[in-house]
């Protein structure tokens, strides 16, 4: 197959790293994956990882014999039933993931949207091997009690440097589910503070004693409203707001919390403007009714800018602006879950920037590409009125926060958010062409002007994902029938060409 290109050199262990060079204004990407290399003064854009493979290499079935043996060994001590492929990260570079059998795949799934600037990135290696990182790792502090002396500087030069507009505070956490859980806690404490009459009103004896028995008033009957098909994590509180698949929730006790309908848009959206506007209005009306009338009063609404695990479901900026307006009107908080959409994937650093809303969310949660986690906020009333209320031993991880700072520096140095926006336009136009040629195989194409955060529905989705590996591409799905693309921020047009050629071969066969 023409697009299964050999690497320019043999796969090598992690003893040297590719050099990353910035995009210049005088260069652009080649339209041909096979010639995606630096060409002096020809107008060809150099790869961001010049030493990464020129394209995929498929030598064996996946998994191959070495991988099968490793999987069998792992299964003796670790559950492998959800395993996608056995990777060799020492031989993975840039946009390409390698296995133990010499197969090298173009990775447009990127660890479920979690690798931002490429495998074996030398800038991240430099950060990871710095004395600052070593100290943070071996002397890991309990941040609430014993923060390191430069913690404020680490936050200001990293996490807070890219804080969403209007949000200048951060609470760090361990993972996306954890970030949402602590955001929910902040919302409940904020709401009860209002109901008591302010931060200086002390807890009464009835509240303190009933809390120890999980009873009201100390454990109040309040709720977080989420949306059908949404995903916000797998811990107990976050799982009660997750509505994507039954397998995520079965057998787990859950809170009695409401769910509203998320807009189910028709595509292409330009041909269904009136119908989609009515659908979004219906969902907003349903949300408002739940806020006003649900038997467990709503303290906050949590929403993803794009429902990622639940099928890559989109809504218009008008819908989200309407949601912000009604949460303000009814004095409930708006939590925007940017765990998967954040850090540049949609062609904006934060996906909610596409809304162009003058009124920011109350909290924005993050993780995945950030490699650390937490939530941003701006209102100081979201800090608990007493210490130890929003607390755990670690309260995040300075080592991961230092890594996020290095990621931010790479994103800025290489202008990767803009790169993702431009590459996304190119990729979407190619998929749009294929959708016109094969309308039965690429349905409801969505994600236009959303960077590389692109998806479509396929009647043969599971077969497509399985066969894609044989074509040299690692890609993922979401919901029941969506193919979702989650490439890294260093994904370029020549990578898009490889993916488009593989996709056409798959859907036409």
From TrEMBL:
Its cofactor is pyridoxal 5'-phosphate. It comes from the Eukaryota. Keywords: Aminotransferase, Pyridoxal phosphate, Transferase. The keyword Ligase does not apply. It holds the Pfam family Aminotran_3. InterPro entries: 4NH2But_aminotransferase_euk, Aminotrans_3, PyrdxlP-dep_Trfase, PyrdxlP-dep_Trfase_major, PyrdxlP-dep_Trfase_small. It catalyses: 4-aminobutanoate + 2-oxoglutarate = succinate semialdehyde + L-glutamate. The keyword Magnesium does not apply. Its EC number is 2.6.1.19. It is an enzyme of class 2 (transferase). Belongs to the class-III pyridoxal-phosphate-dependent aminotransferase family. This is 4-aminobutyrate aminotransferase.
